[in-house]
Amino acid sequence: MKRPIILLCAIFVLFLTACGSQDPHVTPAAPISNSNSTPDLCAAEHLAESIKKVNDLQREFDDASQLASNLAREQLPDSISNMQRIRRAAEDHQAPACLTTLKGHQLAHMNIVIDTMIAFVGGADTETLNKGIADASEEHDLYTLEIARLLGTTLSPVTNESVPTDTSAP
User: Fold this and answer.
1) CA torsion 126→129→133→136, rounded to 10°?
2) Is residue 131 exposed (0-12), middle (13-18) or buried (19+ Cβ within 10 Å)?
3) Would you place residue 49 in the very low, low, confident or very high pLDDT band (cuts 50, 70, 90)?
């Protein structure tokens, strides 16, 4: 009979000590606010990483399209499928709102390249292919300019300066 009473007393003592005062050296944790628990991906400290995620897909696509441009017509269908896979990944990527224009240029460029490659496989005329190449290049340039704008950098044009050569005899 004494055992249950001792057990109840022990539980009562534990209960009282749990309800006692807190250690004055322990600081209670700050409450977690759900209103702003995710970082602003457009803020300066996160923007470069947000752009990198979009640009990684662009770089993969650029590599695939450069490879495709050096393949024979018969080898292009598999390469086009790979570019379409990358484009779908870019479409599915949830970029922050500040990258809407960047992503728009990216997808436009990818679509034009893919459409131009498909036209080439289908035997399109030179004028159609040249227009596709020019349009894709323009979208890629707009994409690059948008990255520069977002990062606050200024691009300078590349000039082909001639390098003087010494033609005198040794």
Assistant:
1) 160
2) middle
3) very high
